[in-house]
Design goal:
Structural class of chain B: mainly beta
Radius of gyration of chain B: 13 Å
Structural class of chain A: mainly beta
Largest sheet of chain A: 7 strands, mixed
Number of strands of chain A: 11
Radius of gyration of chain A: 13 Å
Helix content of chain A: under 10%
Largest sheet of chain B: 6 strands, mixed
Strand content of chain B: over 45%
Order of helices and strands of chain B: EEEEEEEEEEEE
Oligomer: heterodimer
């Protein structure tokens, strides 16, 4: 069964509003989680690494003030798209490393489709 | 710099036919190599992975992949595809499972 969940699965918002996406690790505690962005018919691009209890690490070119990441507990990381604009419309996917001491695989959530009008 | 190339954007095969999806990478050392499948409404699912050892890797759902260092390739194969295999397939490489980059994906369609 699924080990990573995301909520909501899809969201439509008006330009200028903020949207929060939740990513939950269902079976293991996750000190590290990852956020990706996927444009239509394109690959996944890593946006940031979410670290429990500390600041997220953002990839080059990703605006940290635009994409706020909070990893307040060992099972929950949130991505907030602030002042969203139509160009932020995309498919956002989170993941975590396999648990139980294994760090050799990422498990992915089902993704969140964001549409900004 | 690391890179992953999936040269085939879209492939159509007949049900029951064999399948090979190509993946080429550029990396300085032997990387971690992965194949994931993405179906609509579902998260990426790991099909198989290679770190070291036997270069022919068996995965789930009857898939296998072969690491060929000399060709910098990690092609995915299945001897007989099923209609349920229709999906998007991504090859990924990295220095570890934490830092991986994905190819652009290959969409697989199955002809009845």
């Amino acid at each position: 069964g699924a080990v990573v969940s995301q909520h909501p699965s899809r969201v439509i918002c008006k330009s200028g509003t903020s949207v929060k996406i939740e990513c939950r690790s269902l079976d293991f505690q996750a000190t590290t989680m990852f956020w990706y962005r996927q444009f239509p018919k394109q690959s996944l691009m890593l946006m940031a690494t979410s670290n429990e209890g500390s600041k997220a690490t953002y990839e080059q070119g990703v605006e940290k003030d635009k994409f706020l990441i909070n990893h307040a507990s060992l099972t929950l990381s949130t991505l907030t798209v602030t002042s969203a604009h139509p160009e932020d419309s995309s498919f956002y996917i989170c993941s975590r490393l396999a648990g139980g001491g294994s760090t050799d695989t990422q498990y992915f959530g089902p993704g969140t489709r964001l549409t900004v009008l | 710099a690391q890179s992953v190339t999936q040269p085939d954007i879209h492939i159509t095969v007949s049900e029951g036919a064999s399948l090979e999806l190509r993946c080429n990478y550029s990396y300085g050392a032997t990387p971690y190599l992965f194949w994931y499948v993405q179906s609509p409404g579902q998260g990426l699912q790991l099909l198989l992975k290679y770190f070291s050892g036997d270069t022919l890797v068996q995965g789930i759902k009857g898939f296998e992949a072969e690491f060929k260092r000399s060709q910098s390739s990690f092609n995915l194969r299945k001897p007989s595809v099923h209609w349920s295999d229709a999906a998007e397939y991504f090859c990924a490489v990295g220095a570890s499972a934490s830092k991986i980059i994905f190819g652009s994906g290959t969409r697989l369609s199955i002809r009845p």
